[in-house]
Design goal:
- By secondary structure, the chain is mostly helical.
- The chain has one domain.
- The two termini are 27 Å apart.
Length: 302
């Protein structure tokens, strides 16, 4: 990975090649989109606005040409630009200028909230929109193979989750952007500031205002009507991402400070990735850390 980071930082042309080619390849191997976006983050974090823009523009043009040649359309380029590269570029600028990961995370969540608001402003009933789309997919799957459960149970579950699909999809995009930002920051640390990333990640901590935003949104979601409440819950899903990351950071510090092996730490991340039930405890740890500062309470020195 360090060799790839070195190649990216050799110049704008090299960075553009990586961003564009991995974006096209991600159509076949989706995780490669993380590498594509991380390259944008690395260049922006290290070289700033102008160089970041050059890579952004160059990658957009290159991907448009590749998309037209290989797929017969260049629309994929603009999808990457507006959904992945541009938000990553902006978040990287925030991190570069402030030097504070918590502010970059807050900005990322604000972008997600704007995306949710944009959907609710442009679509009459987002829940019905998602429900119709999911039902078409389910219908196709049902024709190919049997589905577990009764139709009534399935429809009830679809009706429930479709209300929150906007927030879930937005949060999923934010997670991809966050992984790219962290990878780009790690690359920067490997090349220019050994151990800098580990120290920064271990000290991610949110401010009380983040907890207040969550509490206010949750309270209003309960008090207001179904339509407004649905919108607020979808906004709140983005805020939960903040606390999830902080929760991961807290557990990371605890495991590492106890002298546990790197294999235990690696095992923790594998479990987090494959066991979604851990999300709620980690969110609660992150939320409570706003006021409790668990790392200071339980660890003498981080």
């Amino acid at each position: 990975m360090k060799g790839l980071a070195v190649f990216i930082m050799q110049g704008g042309r090299q960075a553009t090649i990586i961003v564009a080619t991995t974006a096209i390849l991600s159509l076949l191997i989706p995780p490669l989109v993380i590498v594509s976006v991380a390259a944008v983050c690395l260049v922006t974090l290290r070289n700033g606005l102008v160089e970041g823009l050059r890579v952004l523009i160059g990658a957009t043009v290159a991907t448009a040409l590749l998309g037209y040649i290989l797929l017969g359309t260049s629309i994929v380029s603009f999808s990457y630009l507006f959904i992945m590269w541009l938000p990553a570029f902006l978040v990287s600028l925030v991190l570069r200028e402030t030097g504070q990961m918590n502010k970059a995370l807050e900005f990322l969540v604000v972008l997600g909230m704007f995306a949710v608001a944009g959907v609710y402003l442009s679509v009459d009933s987002p829940a019905q929109f998602w429900l119709a789309g999911i039902q078409e997919i389910i219908k196709t799957l049902a024709e190919q193979q049997g589905l577990p459960g009764t139709q009534d149970d399935l429809q009830e579950a679809l009706a429930f989750w479709s209300k929150y699909a906007t927030g879930i999809v937005a949060a999923g995009t934010l997670i991809s952007l966050l992984m790219s930002l962290l990878l780009g920051r790690w690359w920067q640390s490997l090349l220019y500031n050994a151990d800098g990333f580990d120290d920064e990640f271990r000290h991610i901590r949110l401010l009380p205002r983040d907890g207040v935003v969550f509490v206010v949104l949750t309270t209003l979601a309960f008090l207001l009507g179904e339509s407004s409440g649905e919108f607020l819950w979808n906004l709140n899903i983005q805020v939960l991402l903040l606390f999830f990351i902080v929760g991961v950071s807290v557990v990371h510090v605890v495991i590492k400070n106890k002298g546990a092996s790197k294999y235990l730490l690696g095992g923790f991340y594998i479990v987090v990735f494959f066991v979604p039930h851990l999300m709620l405890p980690l969110v609660l740890i992150g939320l409570s850390d706003v006021w409790m500062n668990w790392r200071q309470r339980f660890i003498a020195k981080t």
